[in-house]
Amino acid sequence: MHLPPELLLEILELCDLATLIPCAAACRLFRCHILTPAFLQRRRAAARGSFTHSSLVGVFYRHCEREARPRPPLFTTIPPGPAAAVAESPFPLVPDVFRDYTPVESRDGLLVLRSIDYYAVKHAGLCVYDPVTGRRAFLPPPEVYDLSYALRRVGDDDDGSSWFRLTAVDLRMGPMIQAQSFSPADGSWGPVIEAPNPRLCRPVVRLSPVILSDVAHWLCGDNRSVLTFHLDTMQLGRIEIPGRQHWHTFWTGQEQQLLASSPDGELSMIFGDRLVISIWVLTPGAGWTQRKRVDMGRILPAMMEPGLPFRRHRQLYFEWFGERSGAVLAQVAGLGFFAVNLQTEEVCTVGERSRDIAAFRYCPYEVDHIARLEAMQSSGVAC
Prior knowledge:
The protein has eight helices and 24 strands. By secondary structure, it is an alpha+beta fold. The protein has a single domain (5-378), classed as Neuraminidase. Strands 7, 8, 9, 10 and 11 form a five-stranded antiparallel β-sheet that branches. It has a four-stranded antiparallel β-sheet with strand order 3-4-5-6. A hairpin with a 2-residue loop joins strand 17 and strand 18 (276-283). Helix 2 (17-24) runs parallel beside helix 8 (369-378). The longest helix is centred in the N-terminal third of the chain and has 11 residues, at 37-47. The chain starts with a helix and ends in a 5-residue tail after the last helix.
């Protein structure tokens, strides 16, 4: 059965943002309608001020040895509000990729997948995958011991020559830090670059870096500094965390600290003191300043089941921060797994009990759908 074009365009007006990108790539009629400035302006106006209406946030299941059974769904979306239901995956997931590979890193709507054989051999093949479009590139294993991946989206060229950049970094506590970058245009890894290790007394807290202006940042395990690595010049550096301003840095565990980025693209740190979240921002010339405090003890009681006792001495454990959505994923011991928008202070429940979520490993993921559509428009996609 064929629908008239007028009805099809009316259906497009009602589609969610996760559906629009595949539709824009489906046919010339849809692409012409979706990429018009008027259509994009309407969708951005409708998404302004919302939690995840313009950005899709969720978690991909990550394979690990001896995981609990049955396994969770491959992808679970984080709903835009407390009452929203978990949605079906909007992505054209490729079963054969996720049968042999597991997600280990994500950024800018892309995933780094690593062969499950990693658990049997030292080096394993990689795959850079775009879940929205289904685009993928298979990479041979790097020469360095790839503990951390710095992933960047650099374009959407039709010939596939330069749509991402990937740098594998070895952050082990040795005398040297090694890095190696992959060139999609050449289809091979570049030379191994070595730099003196700046005397890390403890390894980094999280292997997933925060990337700002082509500089990767990792929070060091000594709770006193941030390790920086320029992905183009391969230069190492350190940013000190002033102890007087962040006295609680020395008294909280590593899971109560999270490196992030501000909406203005500045380096930020998120601290958890029981159920209070504080956000500090590093401003050039002004140092670290506190920007915001979010009292989860004021928000969570309204979301709890009636009759369940609430205790303010519970502790937050941070998992991940979304650069585009402004959402932080955190566990509250005994209560559950939550997504908190640090700007609007909206909270939604991802898991009923933290121990249910902790039984599995996840790779957080987000993509700004309006930004992707506008990128398609500005890149001159033929209509």
